[in-house]
Structures are given as C-alpha cells and as structure tokens.
Amino acid sequence: MSIIAKHTAAPRGGKKSFARHILLSVALACAGTGALAQDWPSAPVKLIIPFPPGGGTDILSRIVANRLAEANRWTIVAENRGGAGGTIGVGEAARAAPNGQTLLMGQKDNMAVAPWLYKKLPYDPVRDFIPVAHVAYTPVVIVTAANSRFRNLGDVINEARRAPGSITYGSPGNGTTIHLAGEALGGAAGIKLVHVPYKGSSPALVDAMAGTVDLALSSVPSAISQIKAGKLRALAVTSAARSTSLPEVPTVAESGYKGFDVSTWYGLFAPAGTPKEVVARVNSEVNRLLAAPDMQKAIHEQGAEPRAMTPEKFSGLLQADYRDAKDIVKRAGVTME
C-alpha cells in the first residue's frame, strides 16, 4: 500500500443537454454493481490533481489518496497538473484510458463553472467524465496579512468606497469559484476590487502575506495553516454558516450582506467508459472512509466539511451548480480564451 507523489470551451455536447447527458453517464456507469474483476487495480492508480502542490485541492486529494491506499493496499500515484484554473489537468484526465486506472480530483471550478467561461475546453465535463464520489466542500475565506490595516471586512469595504479600484485581491486563477466569489462580493457591496490571478492558491497567499496584494481569497484548506500560524488574518468566510474549522471568523452575510453564500466542492471523477464496477467500488470505499471519525477529523483540520454522496446525488449537485454558474459568470462578465 502506498501513495507516490509526482509534481510534474463550452461542452461540445451542448449546454442545454447537460442534465440529460450526465444522468445517462451516471446510469450507465452505476447500473448494477456486479463482481469486480479480480485483478483490479492491475497497476498503480493515477490520481490527477489539477492544481499545484500545497493548495486546497492538493491537500484533500492526498488525504483521500493516502487513506484509500492504506485501507485497500492500493498504490496510488498522485500527479499535480496545474494551470488554467485546473482545466489543463482535467483535460489530461479526459484523455486517459477508461480502464479504471485514472481518477481525477475535480472541483466546482473546472467541472461546473469552466464550461461557461471558456469558448474552447480540452474536455467536455458531460461527455468525458463520470461523477464517482463527492469528498468535501469548503467556503472561501477572505484573508489579509497579519499586519494589514484591515481589521475586518467592513474596513475593506469602506476603503474600497473611499478609493474605488485601490484594493487588490489574489485568487487561484481567472474564472475559478474563488475569483467569482470576489466578483460576487464586489457586486453585493457595490465596490470595485481589482482581481490579480495566480496559478493556484499558494502563490496568492504568499503575496498576501507579503502585502503585494491587499487581500487573498482562498479555500479554507489552502489558507488555514497560515491563519493558525498568525501569518494571515481571516476577515470573513463566504458560506451561509461559519466554518467548523474557523468558528471565530464571521460570514460575509453576518457582515451586512444577507443571503451571501459561495462555496466550492471537491470530488472524484473517472473518464467516461470506466467500468461500472470500478465506479461503484471507489464510491463505496470513499463513503466508508468519510464515515470514519479519524477521516472526518483530518478533513476538518484542513478547513473542509466532509460529505458523502452516491454518484447519482453527486451528479445532481453538479447539475445544479452548472445551472447557477451560468448566471454568476454572466453577471461577472468573465470570459476566458
């Protein structure tokens, strides 16, 4: 049993057919469980992580990979393939052979939001993937340097109103849910924040600590260690309720913007055509792990909230977020090449 670390456009099927196609994909993948082939996995399982090392997706991916490897005596090769808001790594996963030997840790950004941002994508989230197992969700946290002049979200908003366009915020990339959370905050508060995109959360947080950008918006898993170390000050979280991991940090809604709620999720996907037995097996194993207190603790410690789902329920979440993303992207006026 082992885990090996290696760092190294609109859906072509049409947006209107999203729900019909994804339900068909899940049904074909999960109808009947059958007996698993005795030799699966016949080789190390590759887990593609479409963001750089150190970010929220990377951290949660490695927690899941380690536990799956330990529990099942599997060898899992974790490979970081960052860039373009996660779409480069997702595209690589889409091209993988559907033999059960490749999994992807996808998230809301690249599976539900990206199709509305990019005129061309190297993958079709409907046609090319099967939702396998939801892992966790997390709010976005708004942070600033520990020595920043901003003591709370109200300070940021007041300054932005006094000097429009003067406050910068870093995100893990253009078009990510985290970027759109910043756009949504600006819209709710009637202010203009200047977006600075990075290739992942880690470099954005480093620049926030250095004061190169005024703020960083990040998943809680990516930022929590620096918050607890006193290097970053958390101003607010974007979910409807406070984060279990940061209970002292108020929500944006509590800061005066009732109804504000933006969060992201993480889950395993497989290339379309992956044997239904593999999908059922991985879903069962992930859900079993998520029920274990030690696994829940490990995920909570990283600032995320574990949540198990069937593949069918996971596909329903994906459909709902896909529909909602259309309006959010349109309001933000964001497009990507």
UniProtKB/TrEMBL annotation:
The keyword Heme does not apply. Residues 1-37 form the signal peptide. It comes from the Bacteria. Keywords: Signal. The keyword Signal applies. Belongs to the UPF0065 (bug) family. PANTHER family: BLR1237 PROTEIN (PTHR42928:SF5), TRICARBOXYLATE-BINDING PROTEIN (PTHR42928). This is LacI family transcriptional regulator. The lineage of its organism: Bacteria, Pseudomonadati, Pseudomonadota, Betaproteobacteria, Burkholderiales.
